[in-house]
Amino acid sequence: MTTFLIIWLYLFGALAVFTLAEDAYMNKTGKLFTATFWFVLFPIIVAIEIIQELIEWRR
Questions:
Q1: How far apart are CA 1 and CA 43, in angstroms?
Q2: Mean pLDDT calculated for residue range 26-38
Q3: Which residues contact 6 (CB under 8 A, 6 or more apart)?
Q4: When comparing pLDDT for 32 and 56, which is higher?
Q5: Long-range contact set of residues 42-49: C-beta below 8 Å, sequence gap at least 24
Q6: Running DSSP on this structure, what letter comes out for residue 31?
Q7: How many beta carbons lie within 10 A of that of residue 35, not counting itself?
């Protein structure tokens, strides 16, 4: 149950960050680097966290 809630929090966080990054990218307000950072690194970070949670859940 805890893992389920954590995964949902990550998904909602990813959605919020994606929306902000998309807004920054579309407006071209000099935040292109920030948008690229979140588009590339945030999904990797979330994937690593979810994998760690699944590994702990299997123990």
A1: 22
A2: 62
A3: 49, 53
A4: 56
A5: 42/14, 42/17, 43/14, 46/10, 46/13, 46/14, 49/6, 49/10
A6: -
A7: 21
Confidence of residue 32 (pLDDT cuts 50, 70, 90): low
pTM of the full predicted structure? 0.41
pLDDT of residue 57: 82
Residue 26: both structure tokens together: 């579309």
pLDDT for the residue 44: 79
Every domain of the chain and the residues it spans: 2-58
The structure tokens listed for 59 are 């123990």
Q: Which single residue is written with the structure tokens 């979330």?
A: 46
Residue indicated by tokens 């590994």: 55
Encoding tokens for residue 28? Answer: 């071209």
